[in-house]
Amino acid sequence: MAAEQINEQKYHEVWTTPVIKIGVITMLLASGLSFIPLIYLYMVHGVLPPFAQAMTAWVLVASVFGAFYVVEPISYYPILGLAGTYISFLSGNISNLRLPCSAMAQEVVGVEEGTKQAEIIGTMGIIGSVVVNLVGVTLAAFVGTWLIGLFPQFVADAFRQYTAPAIFGAVFGQFAMRQPKLAPFALAIPMTLLYFKMPIWLVILAAVFGTIAISRIFYKMKIIH
Fold first, then answer.
1. Mean pLDDT in the chain?
2. Does residue 33 sit within a domain?
3. Residue 63 domain-assigned?
4. 42: domain range?
5. pLDDT in tens, 151-207
6. Is residue 120 part of a domain?
7. What is the C-alpha separation between 98 and 91, in angstroms, rounded?
8. Could you tell me if residue 11 is inside a domain?
9. I want to staple 93 with a disulfide (CB 3.0 to 4.6 A). Which of 97, 148, 170, 203 is the partner?
10. Residues near 122 by Cβ (< 8 Å), separated by ≥ 6?
11. Are the beta carbons of 89 and 69 closer than 8 angstroms?
12. Which of 122, 20, 25 lies closest to 78 in space, CA to CA?
């Protein structure tokens, strides 16, 4: 017990505290730097949208993406971990890149989800994805458009329309294999709500928290472990 407490304290000192400190600083810097283009437009060109129009634009964006403000940090954290959450929300491409890379790294190494070992391994996978993604995006910026232009039109259209759904389907399949008893519910909840034409934000919230609730019930009933 004493050794476990020492390890817990050491982990907190070496990992948790520095991660929070660096994570908060980098996120605040990124948030502040995001306003540089607006400051430039105002200082150099005198462009400043009226406050009412700016708030209207924000409301329109929040109505579409507002549910993600709540859903993503909660639903992604168990796989991303503390450091992975900071890195992923700073670098983007969470659901289609960071999350699969973190999950795959944990699966390959064979660590148990939710443990300290899993968080560290998952973070390493995310860091690797950021480096590879940076190189890939840089190359794509130079040759991607040219390369797509070489394909027949139907192939190019397929890349544009089906790449993201294919990635999301693969991620769902990856996690469905881990908890096959939960997969039907995770799929049935959003499909049912979409059939009744419910708002997207409600579908997202219900799919995430509904599946969490069902998994909790199954865990209490010892149906899943």
1. 84
2. yes
3. no
4. 1-48
5. 888 888 887 788 778 877 877 887 788 788 888 998 999 899 988 888 877 888 888
6. no
7. 9
8. yes
9. 97
10. 79, 80, 81, 84, 102, 103, 105, 106
11. no
12. 122
